[in-house]
Amino acid sequence: MGRSAISSYGGKIHVRQSHVCPARPPSVIPALAAGGLYFLSSPERIILSMAAITKPYHLTVRQFSDGQYTEGGRSRYIEHPKYSSNPSRFVRGFELLQKDLLTLFEYIEPSKFSKDTYSFRTFEFLLRTSTEIEANCKSIFKLNTYTQKVEERWNMTDYFKINKSHYLSDYRIKMPFWDGSEKIRQPFKEWSGGSFQQLTWYDAYNQVKHDRTGNLHYASFNNLINAFCGLVVILTTQFLDNDFMQRASAITDEGPNDGFESTIGGYFRVELPKSIPYREMYDFNWQTIKDQADPFEKFNYDSV
């Protein structure tokens, strides 16, 4: 076998191989192989873990190799000026949309009985929300690497690649108030199969955008809510709940013990992915790398 590097995070020991040249193929448990863990047959009796990501990608939140996201201040990389470009503009755009959405809830009850309701107001919100999602996706591409098309031709078939880096389809959003069975939503679930599928709410946006007169009913309250949950996911995968406001530290309400976390704006709640393959997890000490000339990597979307 090749030389090993041993590291620990959160008290968990990882043995990482720089190269592996076994005399015979190892016995691999398929379910664990997907996560980068290889169990060698006797007489080795050791576990090898493929190296995780040692620098964060721009605009990309990831689970760390010990399964955590924020513990011990490790998510402070989000606040570094090279991590993103004008993040407050995206946050402010989102918060304005959410403020208007909560006002809409004063007229349309968040309920299964309101799902098919539509109007020029829901049409306006669906357009604003969907274009905000597109703007966020474009920003992710521009700060990383994507050269297969010129920027003017990027569309949702291109942005589908972001599911590979951000695990969009694994995120679930919980609405605090919803009368019915769809209180928890998974807006990118159609991408979980690994191949491009048109998102129902995004297809509705395109239908009504190109033919408002004939397709206004596509701007339904339900499609709007799913699109907005998609925007919550996109923001969370970049910034968690960081709104980039300068404020003193304070004791905060952690919310119910429901497995969900707070989001930007404080209204919706999010369940972060728990099953990212080990080789795709972050494994760095931010305090050690933060002063490097460039402590970030660019995700190569050309290779997806």
Summarize the structure in words:
By secondary structure, the protein is of the alpha+beta class. Helix content is 31%, strand content 9%. It has 9 helices and 8 strands. The strands form 3 sheets. The chain has a 4-stranded antiparallel beta sheet with strand order 6-5-8-7, covered by helices on one side. A two-stranded antiparallel ribbon has the order 1-2. A two-stranded antiparallel sheet has the order 3-4. Strand 7 and strand 8 (269-271) form a beta hairpin. Helix 2 runs antiparallel to helix 3 (120-143), helix 3 (120-143) crosses helix 6 (200-210) and helix 3 runs parallel beside helix 8 (221-239). The radius of gyration is 21 Å and the shape is globular. The two termini are 30 Å apart.
